[in-house]
Amino acid sequence: MTIQGLSRFTQKTMRLSSTWVVIVILTFFLLGTFLFQNKNLLLIPQLNFWLGLIFLFSSYPVGIGLLSPLPWLYSGDDELRAGITRGALQSIIFNSLWLAVAYSIAFFILSDGDKGVPAHFVGEEIGQHFKYWDWVKRAPVNSVLSTIIGALIANGRVEKIEKETMTEALSQIRLRGLQAQLSPHVLHNSLNGLAELVHQNPIKAERGILGLSALYRQFLDFSVQHKSTIGKEKIFIEHWADLEILRLGSRLHIEWQWDDSLNSIPIPPLVLQPLVENAIKHGVTPSIHPCILRIQSFRMPDGRISLSVENNGISLDPRFAWGLGLTNLDSRLKIVYGNQSSLQLLKRDDWTYAQVIIPDHYLGWSL
């Protein structure tokens, strides 16, 4: 088994709840009370070893909690320094916990609830029993073993942190690449629409150019911050929809069913836009009749957020409606939310329905 493999095995083995500390204490206390009424529990030569071994495993979360303010990595080029230092600190905590609990168990067992026994007498009796523990001989062994195990834990932990950091960095690079891919796509389609409008109605085209300028400013904000909110998405869609209404006129009617209490929730940029663009491109534009575009946001019973766009224009098989925009959006959602998000495109009678479901927070890392 390699050092990395041993480190991972040790971490998995020692990933126990701190509740086990209480369980171990109670177990030894009950054993001492009911099975060793002759008060010879502390005379068992192997008790030191087994109690120490169990406490080493069960007190690991406590050790992590006490050491959490300390840095994992220390200055210098020696990669082992972090592991050995962490192991030594873990050893100190382990032995301190072991000694404190063992002494406490001894006190309660030897005093046996007799309030008439002087405290100094109990202390002297504990001291007599401690002679049989070979503490001086066993403590260095325990310290060395716990230091080695602590070092393995630390090295594995550092390796895990570095791997997570690298994975997050790669995810952010990929996400920003997808956003950069989408921005020219959106602007290109807007310019095409304005080009048609220039010949039909120059005044409307001028208004459209001003609206496109506002959209571009938001794109610049997205490129700097790489994040948005549900409220900002609504504002962006309002600007986008104004451009489409200039082009489509009375054929496009937009209805908002919007929960304003969700506006401050952070989301990746351009989540709604692909849904709206897809509905207009495949449902509204080909239709010769007025169409309704309904945009909704609400919190679902399980706490997740639903953002949806539906239209009653030309019906299209959802299997063939996935273009660059929706494919791009699906990839970005998977990067940010993993399997806790979904994107679906459905047909309901004469309506085509697109829905994004996301948690109300980022998972694992912020954009």
> How is the biggest beta sheet arranged?
5 strands, mixed
Multimerization state:
single chain
Strand order of the largest sheet: 2-4-5-7-6
Coarse shape: elongated
Could you report the average pLDDT, rounded to the nearest whole number? 66
Give the number of helices: 11
Strand content: 5-15%
**Share in helix:** 55-70%
Evaluate the radius of gyration: 33 Å
Secondary structural class = alpha+beta
What is the succession of H and E elements? HHHHHHHHEHEEHEEHEE
Which stretches are low in confidence, meaning pLDDT under 50 for 5 or more residues running?
9-23, 33-81, 113-123
Distance between the termini: 38 Å
Domain tally: 2
**How many strand units?**
7
What report would you give on this structure?
This protein has 367 residues and is α+β, with helices and mostly antiparallel strands. It folds into two domains: 3-166, no CATH class; 201-358, Heat Shock Protein 90 (2-Layer Sandwich). It is 62% helix and 11% strand. It has helices at 3-13, 19-35, 47-58, 60-67, 79-111, 119-130, 135-200, 202-225, 230-248, 272-284, 324-337, and strands at residues 228-229, 252-258, 266-267, 291-299, 305-311, 342-348, 351-358. The longest helix has 66 residues, at 135-200.
Overview features:
Heat Shock Protein 90; 2 domains
